[in-house]
Specification:
By secondary structure, the chain is mainly beta. It is 6% helix and 55% strand. The chain contains one helix and five strands, in the order βββββα. The strands form two sheets. The chain has a three-stranded antiparallel beta sheet, with no helix packed on it. A hairpin with a 2-residue loop joins β4 and β5. The longest helix is centred in the last third of the chain and has 5 residues.
Length: 88
């Protein structure tokens, strides 16, 4: 797959990744001719949790691997809650 075959969008709290894979093979030899075409599309949608800075979402494609980064907002990074331990 190439970078141009993948589409990443964010809308209404949902991150959607779409793509289409195409493969064509043609082989001509003495006595026969082979032609194969394979196509396949995919789509995945994920709900983005609260505390993600949607303006800073990034997608990188390198060596066939798509990496999507969802950074937290400053408020989400500093929020910490102490959980008390109860005796059983």
């Amino acid at each position: 797959m190439n970078e141009s075959d993948i589409d990443v969008k964010f809308s209404d709290g949902t991150l959607t990744i779409k793509g289409e894979k195409r493969d064509e093979k043609e082989e001509k030899k003495k006595g026969y001719y082979l032609s194969e075409r394979r196509y396949g599309s995919f789509q995945r949608s994920f709900g983005v949790p609260d505390g993600v800075d949607v303006d800073k979402i990034e997608a990188n494609f390198k060596n066939g691997v798509l990496t999507v980064t969802l950074p937290k907002t400053p408020q989400a990074q500093t929020s910490e809650k102490k959980i008390s331990i109860k005796k059983a």
